[in-house]
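Class, discuss our next protein.
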Amino acid sequence: MKLQQRILTFLAVVSLGVATFSGVTPLRAQAPQSIPALPLDTAVRMGKLPNGLSYFIRHNAEPQARAEFYIVQRVGSMQEEDSQRGLAHFLEHIAFNGTKHFPGKGIDHFLEGIGASFGSNINAYTSFDETVYTLMNIPVPRKSVVDSCILILHDWSNSLSLEDKEIDAERGVIEEEWRSRDSGDARNQERLLELAFPGNKYGQRMPIGKMDIVRNFPYQVLRDYYKKWYRPDQQALVIVGDINVDEVEASIKRIFADIPAPVGAAERVYVPVENNDRPIVAIASDPEATQNFLSIMYKQEVTPPEIRASILGVATNYVKHMITAMANERFGDITQKPNAPFLSASMDMGPLFGLAKTKDATDFNAAFKEGGWEPALKALTAEIVRIKKYGFNKSEYERARKDYLVNAKKLYNERNKRKNKAWAEEYVSYFTDGGTLLDIPTYYDLISKMSEQITLEQINGALAELLTEDNLVLMLSSVKKDGVKIPTEAEFLAAYETGIRQQVEPLKEAVSDQKLLDKLPMKGKVVKVLKDQKYGSTVWTLSNGVRVVLKKTDYKEDEILMSAQRGGGILSMTASPLDKKLVNQLSDLGGLGKFDVTALGKALAGRIASVSTNVSNLYDDISGSSSKEDLETMLQLLYLSITAPRADQEAFKTWQEQTLAGLQAAKANPLSSLGDSVSRLLYPKNPERYPLTEAEVKEANYQRVLKLHHSHFATAEGFTYYFVGNIDEATLRPLVERYIASLPVKKGVQHKAPYDKAVREIPGTHTKVYSKEMATPTGIAVNSLSVPTTSSHKGILIASTLSSILDQLYTKTIREDEGGTYGVSANVSLGRYPQPYYSMTVQFQTEPSKVEKLNALVFHGLEDIAKNGPSQDYFDKAIKNMEKEHSESLRRNSFWLGKLNLYYTHGLDFVTDFDQVRKSITPAEVQALAKQLIETKDRITIYFKSIEPKK
């Protein structure tokens, strides 16, 4: 019996589809049309043009005056012929290099001119069965901008220029993207894909393609792919944002009217994935692989589209979510214990290998220590047998159900504040995969009632068909090196067959005490209230001297953020470098109060609340978040974090084992040692900044480090707490009095940030070259420049402007003109401690023989700005983007949390005069900063050049 048939024994479709009945006729006795599709959300305008183009339009003003413009192609690398491997992805790149109405870089120039930026706002991706172009968070101040964005989508659909010179220029960029990703793990993944899909196109169509084809394909081959597959019957527009739906629909009809319906078009076939009677065993190894894992996959048929669109589809998704959540909780519990048989494990239910459209799978995955595949496989199969034989227990289901419902409730509470991007991605998924498009209130009502009706017994009853013995795929990925035994296919299969026959006991019911505090603390008081303070905040002074600043916002319906800070930090410690290095890594291993980490997670089921403590270089920091309903839970977690941190020696031992395994595995990556070498070069007298070593992990003193961390939070003296979000003061005040005003305070202790001890990179001019054997020829350049300055808001914005200008410049010169890299990271900032300074870092990856030549362009570009000033075009785009990003930040709770802290801690207001300061920035000021940087004596250049491995 299929899963859908079993679910139908306890579901009936009534009106809007509420799960209420049991004993319904199984699916096999029903015609598909007897299962009605669920109603579609009427807030989205859906349609199809005569030429076959689909569209989804929705008005949504989150954020205001912004919109998403996507064009979705139901084609990808699976439509490539053998001679075209990599061209679907290549076409996605070249689409930004000239179209009918936007020649050359016209798309980027237009969008950057209104404040968008390439990468974060202008992007695309190619997968096996779809290609999606995304204009994200685009300013839409007027209808003409909206129409221009629709025109861009039109040109991507049907009017790419595909000029010879642009194709040739992009070949190098694609190869550099491949270079940046071609690790030992990537090679193992590609090999596993080939083996898991024997003789099937899915095993031969990694979107990045083959570099010999990318370097050499004739121009016409790309044009043929474009003409054959980019056509309106396989395309959809998704436009969501602060737009007029009627006007957008009319513009779509007008702008796309010149694209004809395809005639004699090639059939769009979704390649079937064959069943297998005998197990498929796939094993891959590579000397540079850092991920050692195995997978057990049970292949299943995909849910038919008409089922996915019905209540049965919603119920199926719910059941699968419950099963995976309960299984993953079990795996998490195992990995929290010392001597665990695997480092991590998980269960997933979805497309085979995460990509096939025509075959699903139930996938069990485990990561293991080098060479440790046998105990991992034995333990993983034991859990599969336990789940299949005994199912799950009531407490597991109750926790999984609570977590599912609380997230559904949050979605409901935030329904009027949902971001444009979330809606757009939902419509992309609907077009490519089908399913439902319920409005959120209907969905929440349906899932709430459904969760009450679907029982644990019914879920356990569905397990047998999900964990079948046929259609089995076994996979193993490992490092290849001396001393690490890799099994043969026969050995791996035999070990699985032994494991799947082992005898296991049912899991004992584990009921967690959900009460975080057995005894509530004695309340303190708010002794002073100041209203209408900076940025509309309210300031409370508590009876223990702690200050609380709160700002109510309406940006999110169901979010409250908290932070707290005082001077202190790692640089104030008189501890060993190792203890400083570990102070944050070990602090939360033990849990809180009477709960270890595992029990705490179970106790928090169905609640959205978290708190963490962190010691940064200069400050002691606390952060937290919660829903409105779980505000008290967040504050209880805060109280426990300060008053009852918990030590757990077993959890520490587990951390040691897992960290040592991770460090050992990382050695396979030739670049793993580069970080250590660079840290030692830049900070020769600061060993606490060096990466952790195996010897240090073994040497770690858990109790001492835990005591060190607790000493920075044991007293509330000097902390200022900040709350931002949908706050009700009447609700918050008694909770603050209970859980913050009651925190212990040790008077007379000074908590000052040790600004004079702030660490800077080594001064002077230095050039260093590192090399190591590496399978993929790799060159890396890292540049760091710094120069003294004075601290000011304007200085920060000038640095940001130069950073944006350099990003544009290096994208053109190093990526596009030279085809030398996939991307250049450029950043200019103003640091304040120990003395104010400008800092500039630029880094990129390329082919080893090109790295020094391309790095010369970094300094040539900076020197040109210093001599002639920045390009006016680049300057204007940088200023416009700064304006865009700031206006968006003003409606984020996290932004205000930071700005309140900046003002109440340092007296700095970087909000009130932002626009005035931004508008006062001149190209000459940017030029002056570039001149300072190009002339500085504090310049560090680091090269990495791989060498060919010895045969």
Notes: The chain is about 40% helix and 20% strand. Residues 12-32 have pLDDT under 50 and may be disordered. Residues 275 and 471 are 6 Å apart (CA to CA). The two ends are 55 Å apart (CA to CA).
